[in-house]
Amino acid sequence: MGSQIDEGLLDEKLAIIEGVKSWQPRLISKLESVIRSGDEDTLFRMNPIRFAREKGVEEEEAIDLFLHSVKAGLFRLNWQLWCPGCGGIVESFDSLRTLGTHYHCNFCQVNLEATLDDYIEITFALSPRVRDIEFNHPETLSAEDFFLRYIFHPEAYFPDGTKFGDAMKKQKPPMFYLEPDAKFEIGMTLPPGTVSGSDWLNRLDLFLAVAGEPMQAIEEVDIFLDPGSIRAPKAELRPGPKVLRFRNRTALKGAIILMSHPEGEIHSPLAFPPFLSGKRLFNSQTFRDLFQSETIQGEEGIAIKDITVLFTDLKSSTALYDRIGDLQAYHLVRQHFGSLARVINKHGGAIVKTIGDAVMATFLQPAEALGAALGMLDEIDRFNQSNGSKDIVLKIGIHKGSSIAVTLNERLDYFGQTVNVASRVQGLAGAEEIYITQEMYDVPEVRALIKDHPVNAKDARLKGIQEKVKVFRVRARPAEVSAPLRLERLAT
After folding, report:
1. Are residues 192 and 334 in the same domain?
2. 359 burial level (CB within 10 Å; 0-12, 13-18, 19+)
3. Is residue 82's pLDDT more than 50?
4. What would the DSSP string read from start to end of 385-441?
């Protein structure tokens, strides 16, 4: 199984990817080198952020590379929900359609909310048609490899830097398979505290309390794996030596792991190295262009803790259509969309949708959004100069905050008050003006960008918002004298 490569298929896929766009020098050969010589753990869960840092390429370029590799059939895209307590994969799937709003870790016995910012990681697995690896056949793995290499995050670490996998190897918790109708005994000396366990294959959890006077004699404890449960008749044990006798009374194979937690043990949440999050993937224009069929199922959507939303619109567009005619105006509007798209993508944003003459875009960082807004004004100025008339005049609004990723009109979209406020703030803007909210202005990088621009502050009423909102108007023309950001009060 291991390292056999289908040379013809690999060459075919790499040629397809190479022809997609102009890549950074030697990027395709760097990818080929990893495919040929990379270890199987790496090829099973390729992290594009790690790949970018190790190979000296831009992160966005690496993300685009792997997304195009999926489209070409060289890699498969995997969505993985990690548990911050144990670093285990609670859910793994190849389509966004199966992503839910909540998930449960049987090992930690906790319910978790799925948010696109945190523990939803996107990895890429090499196609088994190109090179087959052992992780494509998890049933062949030893129990230890199944848990430490297949289930638990290989790079998760504690606050002191210790890797979770290394700590597990040192502690050596029981890990074993339990075949149908099979029995298995394991000896453990249990201190006061608790014992948690999980049958990872069947998504079952076990919890035992350990309390009371310690026992000197060995106690035998029966634990049964039944359809839909794993349980012990005695849910509370006394401290001391035990023989835990497992019996599988189902027709399904189990994969069991046990962990003793001494009384008073403090377990901090695990940290993870930088990875491609669901939020960042949603903000990739390449992902939106290549995988338009990816949608979120259900009506609840998936939470996003922080996203920056930008809206543009045209000043006096109705008069434009009336003055130059529908056909020419439509052509100009389409051209201006292309100009805005280039600026948005250059600043790390993605166009969510166009609405009439308007554009909605999202950014991971507020300063990227403001940088794009300033760049748009410059770009449209050049656009108008090249056309010999000032027909296209922008108005821009930006806000940041939490949101919900949803499916609207069969495409990925965003919903919530952050989107509403961004749209309303854009409605305040006049010709060649950018309006931002207090939340945007409070970001130091944003203030640094506009320190040489005249900025006006006011309290505004926005439709649908009960309280007045502090907004800041940034004008396109920079101040004549560079100075710290000056605020002028506008009439409210």
Report:
1. no
2. buried
3. yes
4. HHHTS----EEEEEEEEEEEEEEETTEEEEESHHHHHHHHHHHH--TTEEEEEHHHH
Q: DSSP string spanning 262-311?
A: ETT---PPPB-----BHHHHHT-HHHHHH-TT----SSS-EEEEEEEEEE
Check if the beta carbon of residue 218 is closer than 8 Å to that of residue 235: no
Q: Are residues 103 and 216 in the same domain?
A: no
Whole-number Å distance between alpha carbons of 372 and 367: 8
Residue 175 has what pLDDT?
A: 96
- Which two tokens mark 351? 């166009």
Pair 42, 189 in one domain = no
Beta strand 302-314 pairing with 236-237:
unpaired
Residue 182 has pLDDT above 60, yes or no: yes
**How would you class 39 by CB atoms within 10 Å of its CB: exposed for 0-12, middle for 13-18, buried for 19 or more?**
exposed
Q: Using one digit for the tens of pLDDT, what is the confidence trace for 479-490?
A: 333 333 444 444
- Percentage of the chain beyond pLDDT 90 is 68
Q: Examine the fold and report which residue of 262, 287, 316 is the final residue of a domain before the chain moves on.
A: 262
In a domain, 39, yes or no: yes
pLDDT of 478 strictly over 80 = no
Range of the domain at 356: 295-489
User: What local confidence, expressed as pLDDT, does residue 477 receive?
Assistant: 58
Asked if residue 111 and residue 221 are part of one domain, the reply reads no
Dmax over CA atoms of the chain, in Å, equals: 96
Strands 469-475 and 455-460: antiparallel
Beta partners for residue 176, in sequence order: 256
One-letter amino acid of 14:
L
Residues 214 and 342 in one domain: no
Residues 18 and 108 in one domain: yes
Q: Say yes or no to pLDDT of 328 above 60.
A: yes
For the chain, how many structural domains are there in total? 3
Using an 8 Å Cβ cutoff, are 275 and 46 in contact? no
Residue 290 lies in a domain: no
Q: What is the pLDDT of residues 210-250, one digit of tens each?
A: 999 999 999 999 999 999 999 998 888 999 999 999 999 99
Collapsed DSSP state (helix, strand, coil) of residue 54: helix
- Return the H-helix or E-strand segment holding 470: strand 469-475
The answer to whether position 163 is within a domain reads no
Average pLDDT over residues 296-306: 83
Let me know how long the chain is. 492
346: helix, strand or coil: helix
* Phi/psi at 172 (5° precision): 55, 60
